[in-house]
Write a structure and sequence with these properties.
The structure is a single chain. By secondary structure, this protein is an alpha+beta fold. Helix 1 packs antiparallel against helix 2. The longest helix is centred in the C-terminal third of the chain and has 24 residues.
Length: 200
């Protein structure tokens, strides 16, 4: 393989290795207290169901403090659901709750992919459990999460802040399988040239 071809293969491998998915973080800041949070435009490809903004000061009980800023979302009735327009690799957030909490990730066919449970029965300030508020929880399933359901009680029992998830891949960056095929093809090309040069 010529030195130029070797350099090309190495540089393509490094580009593929250094091209992670972009992550989206929703802080819930900038929305008025009691905003029903559904399809607000933050360019992240996610819609919410069962989520309402609470602000401090305002409607937010200080026993459920934000992880950052002044706003959180809570579940006024039942579960909170996030639906992603493009499947994501993970979903995470900071949760304060007054009943046992469970987060479940599903694929586009509604198959359960991953589950995360709160460490305590409650973690709000003054709960007496010894657990700290704003517990970090995450569910993972690379490139497969189409929906996340957060539940734990009949409603008004948890707050979520600083929700994070991977967005869709940059269309200019090849998927790992595409990169592997490209590198394999370049390797075969180099081997072919080497054989041809040896035959001369």
């Amino acid at each position: 393989m010529t030195s130029n071809l070797k350099a090309l293969v190495v540089s393509l491998a490094l580009v593929g290795a250094a091209a992670p998915c972009s992550a989206s973080v929703i802080t819930f800041e900038g929305f008025p207290d009691q905003t029903v949070f559904t399809t607000q435009d933050f360019g992240s490809g996610v819609t919410f169901a069962g989520a309402t903004i609470l602000s401090l000061p305002g409607s937010l009980n200080p026993a459920f403090p934000p992880h950052s800023g002044h706003n959180v979302v809570y579940n006024p009735i039942g579960a909170m659901t996030l639906n992603f327009t493009t499947a994501v690799d993970f979903f995470s957030g900071f949760f304060t709750y007054n009943q046992p909490l469970v987060i479940q990730a599903y694929d586009s066919l509604n198959n359960l992919l991953d589950t995360a449970n709160g460490a305590c029965t409650a973690n709000y300030i003054g709960s007496g459990t010894g657990c700290l508020d704003n517990e970090f929880l995450q569910v993972d399933a690379i490139g497969a999460i189409a929906k996340v359901v957060i539940a734990g009680g009949g409603g008004n029992n948890f707050t979520l802040d600083d929700a994070e998830f991977t967005g869709s891949r940059d269309p200019g960056v090849p998927e790992p399988a595409t990169m592997a095929m490209l590198l394999g093809g370049l390797g075969a090309l180099g081997l072919s040239r080497r054989r041809r040069a040896a035959a001369l």
